Amino acid sequence: MNRTPVTIEVESPVPGETDRRSVDEYVYLLGRPPLKQFLDFVEEQVVDGRSLERRALIEEWTSANNVIRLLEENEAGWADNPKIGAIGPHLEHLRNEFLKDPLLEHSFRSVPIEVGIVELDRLVVYQKHINLEFVRAAKKKLGDAPGDEDVFKTCLPSDRATPAAKLIRSRNDTYQFVSPSNDLRFLGPMILQSDHITGQPHPGVLVGVIGLAVGFGTNLLNVIHAENRLVLNNGSHRAFTLRQLGITHVPCLIQHVSSREELTLVGSAELKLNPDRYLLHPRPPMFKDYFDPRLRKVFPVTRQLRQVRVNFNIEENYLPAV
């Protein structure tokens, strides 16, 4: 993997009296509309955010917006036609092992995919903030000088550890799943047969079982290739970690999208809602912006847990036998 000799540092605010166990530090991208979204983030999530001077925050955002206007002139087209490199021969065995994962076939079956090497700084991004606590944990695991195989396994793991999660039954028809991982999600319904249920006594003679699956996705470094641009779709924190370690080019799973209709099948909610902002804008938000002190601000943010609530409803009645 290509590297730069100097590690990129991100400034951190001086720790206050707040209990650090319940507070994370976020890098937030400034200057991109809407301004109200930024102000709402500060008020609702930043520690003591409502006490911060609103006018000063607006001025910081406006200053960053002015920088973005200059970048639109000086770096117009910088996101266009990024190169996709091939995996080196010494990593082909890891690529082959990765592609055998059955989860890939289920999660990435809508458009053509490939494993390739991309330049991080040239990726278009839509995620406005990065949790530095996740980054620190990843750096601790990786070390200061990870080898190419370590980088590959970080970006495209074949053996994934399951994050911590808790299941809580709050009512007879409601269950809550809670995890510190923001990858926790509803995975969809599953139709099961009685022989699929083992180690658990059946409540009666089963006709069928409907499962409501909650868990974690494939959680890998994933990029969408659309309209001659590469958009970072998943794996922002590991990408940030690697770039901070000086690694400029990384392996990732690339989804090739040939139309806006295909984009609706694989894109995030933000990308589907505002595709022109990321695919047509002359200078969209780029990955390198996370490291530009003119375009970012570090905030202490109240630690969040991801919650998925599952509720079901039962109806029993009679139908005419006709």
What report would you give on this structure?
The protein is α+β, with helices and mostly antiparallel strands. The chain starts with 22 loop residues before the first strand and ends in an 11-residue tail after the last strand. It folds into two domains: 226 residues, Alpha-Beta Complex (Conserved hypothetical protein from pyrococcus furiosus pfu- 392566-001, ParB domain); 34 residues, no CATH class. The relative contact order is 0.23. The model has no long low-confidence stretch (mean pLDDT 91). It is 28% helix and 25% strand. The strands form four sheets. A four-stranded mixed sheet has the order 2-10-8-9. A three-stranded antiparallel sheet has the order 3-1-11. The protein contains ten helices and twelve strands.
